[in-house]
Structures are given as C-alpha cells and as structure tokens.
Design goal:
This protein is of the alpha/beta class and 266 residues long. 36% of the residues lie in helices and 18% in strands. The strands form two sheets. It has a seven-stranded mixed beta sheet with strand order 1-3-2-4-5-8-9. The chain has a two-stranded antiparallel sheet with strand order 6-7.
Amino acid sequence: MAEQLHARVLGDSGSRVVFCHGLFGQGRNWTQIAKELSADHRVVLADMPDHGRSPWTEAFDYVGAAERVAELLVGEPAALVGHSMGGKIAMIVALLHPELVERLCVVDVAPTAYAAHSDFETFVTAMRAMDLDTLTSRDDADTQLAQDVPDPVVRGFLLQNLRREGDAWAWQLNLSVLGDDLDEIRDWPDAALAGCAPYSEPVLWVGGDRSDYVDDDHAPAMTALFPRVRRVTVKDAGHWVHSEKPGIMVELLERFLAADQSESAD
C-alpha cells in the first residue's frame, strides 16, 4: 500500500469532516474554517498527493488521488469537503466509495473538463523560473515571483510551498508533475467512472458569483451524478470562496453538517 496522505486533526469529538484542498494548496489552507467547526466535529486537513507533506507521484491521476483520500476514511465514514482540484477528488471518492462518504460538499468546481487556464501556466512557469540556488530569503523569492505574479495574495499562496532545507531552498510540492500534468488536472475521468452509480447522499455545491468554474451549463452533469445536490452561490466571491468569505462558508457547512440526511439536500 502506498504511503498515507499527511493529515492534521482538529477537534476531539463529534463526526469527522475531511477537507481536500485545491491545486498548489495545502490542508492548512482550511485552518480558519476547521477551527470554527472543531468545537462540534473532528476535522481532518489532508494534504493531497504531490502537495504539502504528502507523498509524491510519478504522474497526476484523479482516481489514484481519490484512492489515497479513501484510505483516510476506511473504518469511519466522514463528510467530505473539496475545493477545485480537491473538489474533483472528493466527488470521485463519493462515486467510487459511497459507503465511505456520509455527505459531500463541493466548492467551486464541477464534474467536467475545463479549458486551459492561462493563470496556472503562468504560475508554474514563474515558480520554475525562480533561481532557488541563489535565493537569499523569502522576501527575495517574493520579489522574483512578483515579476510574473503581481497579486501579493496569490504570491503568498504560491510561496507557502517554498521551504528552506538547511542552507538550500526547495519547493515542497511536486512542481514537476503538477506543471507537466495541468491538462490532466483540468480534465474529468469519465471513462474511469463509467460504471459508477450516482451518489445518493446529500451534496452541497458552493460557488462564487464572480467565478467561472461553476455556471448553469454545469448543472446537468452535476445533477446526473449527484441527484440530491443543493446549489448555493456566494455573492462577491471568486474561485477561492472559503478564503474570501470564510464566515459564510462556516455557516453553510455548519447547517449542512447538522441537517438530517433526509432534509440536508432539500
């Protein structure tokens, strides 16, 4: 069996809630929300494959990533929450292993293949272009990255993956695989999921109204795979709904997690 994903747990009582972060992220990106939920739940913040402290792979594969997440759930099913890339992973876990997922929350992504997104190529190119051998400090890294990534919030998000190891700097994420496999990350594994029945438990589908990752055109595919889906659009939020509107995200999750199975998707 492959090495298990790295995960941090907050809270010591209540039902389990497992979070799957997006591309270039880490489990700790959900810490603020996890702390709010940890009074009533045991919250698991997992680093996805090729990210954070989790094992690296030789190629990105959604089904493989979903199987690694499923290993965290064996023996104790949980509510699963996933954003963007992590949302696709969470959906695939629910379809392949419905007995392990009590309910599902998908944040700003749909079960579909997306067109190329130039920002991601820009980020990968900029990170690869940084001269880590001559890097003197994190401020130096920020200055180098600013030439191609002018938004300081985005730079901070990317630079969370930069670590100092002794006298050298290195990327903690598997930049080679993630950069080479962006097309795979944008895709949706229809063929691998062809034999799966629709997931029959409640699903909360959250999107930002300023994001183009979720729109009405995606609804038929979502409903076909997740018939008990409830869609919520958060005003004045973009793709990173949980970072931009954490209070609203906490409220949505608290209500969803507290609802009876019979009513939580109504």
